[in-house]
């Protein structure tokens, strides 16, 4: 299953935005209001939970500074990745689009598609505000 967020403009350079997304504690500020847990596990990993959903542990898997940050699930039970593709627009402005890719059976994909779409759109919208 592949999902994309809307492309948003952020008032940061591509390098600043890449650094922001590489620092996992910053994801707490991007989370939806329905968050029930957020905990930094290490320098490159964190766990979060939204109300009514199971906990999800993510870690920074790859960084191609300043254009790409890839987060991936720590657990192999539900393998997925969340990629931020960053493009510099000017010295102080960049755009970012989030790409979610996961391997789910058809039944699971039907159940999670809506909530995941809403989640990545919320992350993207909150990135506009930083």
UniProtKB/TrEMBL annotation:
InterPro entries: START-like_dom_sf (IPR023393)
Source organism, top-level taxon: Bacteria
Official protein name in the record: SRPBCC family protein
Organism: Aequorivita aurantiaca
């Amino acid at each position: 299953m592949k999902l994309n967020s809307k492309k948003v403009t952020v008032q940061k350079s591509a390098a600043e935005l890449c650094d922001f997304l590489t620092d996992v504690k910053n994801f707490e500020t991007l989370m939806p209001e329905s968050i029930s847990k957020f905990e930094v596990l290490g320098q490159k990993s964190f766990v979060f939970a939204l109300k009514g959903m199971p906990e999800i542990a993510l870690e920074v898997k790859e960084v191609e500074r300043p254009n790409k940050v890839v987060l991936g699930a720590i657990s192999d039970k539900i393998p997925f990745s969340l990629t931020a593709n960053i493009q510099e627009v000017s010295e102080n402005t960049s755009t970012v689009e989030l790409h979610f890719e996961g391997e789910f059976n058809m039944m699971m994909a039907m159940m999670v598609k809506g909530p995941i779409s809403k989640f990545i759109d919320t992350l993207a919208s909150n990135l506009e505000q930083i």
